[in-house]
Design a protein that fits this description.
This protein is of the alpha+beta class. Helix content is 64%, strand content 13%. The longest helix is centred in the C-terminal third of the chain and has 33 residues. InterPro entries: ArsR-like_HTH, HTH_ArsR_DNA-bd_dom, HTH_MetalResp_TranReg, WH-like_DNA-bd_sf, WH_DNA-bd_sf.
């Protein structure tokens, strides 16, 4: 599977976000999702076979990290997408705070 098709799936994009700056074990990744470990393992397999994550094995544990170099131009796109989501979340939070303050002064 090519990289674009691999990151088209939302859970795989979320896995990439999780391992963007930090190496995580398969178990740590799976804990963040509401699907089975097997389902997460399949997503990790697709990402690994697409060359988008690296795998390091330490005993029985498998650790994953995003391979930004392999992502090429997709890396910048994914980072901008995640930044845009964070910007939106910050704007919503600030709007909620302003609304709370204005409700408090209306009493």
């Amino acid at each position: 599977m090519d990289a674009v098709r691999a990151v088209a799936e939302p859970r795989r994009r979320e896995i990439l976000r999780l391992v963007w700056d930090a190496e995580l074990s398969a178990g740590e990744i799976a804990e963040r999702f509401d699907v089975t470990f097997g389902a997460v393992s399949q997503h990790l397999k697709v990402l690994r076979e697409s060359g988008l994550v690296t795998l390091r094995q330490d005993g029985k544990k498998r650790f994953y990290r995003a391979d930004r170099e392999a992502l090429g131009p997709l890396a910048a796109y994914l980072q901008s997408m995640w930044a845009a989501k964070l910007d939106t979340l910050a704007e919503l939070s600030e709007a909620a705070e302003r609304a709370e303050r204005s409700e408090g002064t209306d009493s």
